[in-house]
Amino acid sequence: MSVTKTGEDLHLIKMAFREFYFNHGNMVQELSKMQNREFGLMGFDGVMKRHLKFSNLGGLVASLVSETPSDVFASNAQYDFPMLPITEKGWRGADLIFDIDLKDLDLKCRLSHSYMICSSCSSSCVCGSRESCQKCGSKSFAQSMLPCDRCVNGLKNEVLKLHRFLISDIGISPEKIHTYFSGNNGFHVHVLDDSFNELNAQARADLAAYIMGVGILSDVIGATKDTQSGFRVTFPMGGLDYGWRKRISERLGISITSQKRLTNLIKELGGLELFRRRVGEITKEMGVRIDSQVTTDIHRVFRLPGTLNGKSGLTKILCADLNTFDPFDESCQLSSREVTVKITVPKLKLRLKGEKFNLTDETVCVPMFMGVYLISKGLAHAVHSDH
Asked: For the chain, N or C: smaller number of CB within 10 Å?
């Protein structure tokens, strides 16, 4: 459920977004084979115009300035006729893209900075603090989150795990892997290697499952069922030095010379079924928590790099160095001129664009980038904007 915005909220956000695209249109990234992509522009009314075509970046940016959408999307696929219905487009292949989102990480800090926004009166409360709105009694809420530094570090660690899989297991060159902050609560990893473009949905699903550690059995390290003794251990002829074989064997502390040790370990755990359960726990822990549906979809539209995220006012931006990248600074590109907003929660501590904010008053003057961020998150409303 989306956060409700007032007319004044929408006016302020649209003004900020139009100004961004007018002044910083050069940040919008031109995709390869742009003329073969389907574009989608999401309006602030929640309606998306799809099946659009732009032959060049100048035409796209001009449209963003004039129409000022809340979000801009482009297909991972290339088509012969991107403006036609999906069955008539003529699919040419699709980029391989992964999505890592904060909601899938289940971090302990998440509830402490998540808020429930009343769908009736827009008042806010910390998640879990009450079941109905204290102001109007409604039980209908939208959820909003303000990621913290711990969240960002958790996301980065997951992205780095994905990088390792793509490089060591799949054989993708590091320079072909581009990582983007999504502009809100996650990261997108784009594989710029045409050799993967023709993979169908099933092949992508198999790849996603491998990276997530789904369906990896104890058989990969040679522990299989035996009708007479219950199980047998026969290490693979290829050894245990790569892929999931290496990960599982290192976690269990075994090597190619440890056949007896692995046999004893299976017995200690209570047999093959319980050992398989232990292997499942290892693969779940060591796998990457990606959104498999995103990777599998060969007709999906993704947020266009260099454009604003309507859920935050931050920019989807390339991470040149993931280790030092700070989304609360580098992706914050809106104006710094002051606007007045009314905060809907008692206290807010956060930082954006190199500034720290400790907001305790109900009505405050803040930079435009902060005002848009809070309004987009449903935690403030615009009081006044320059018409």
From this structure: C
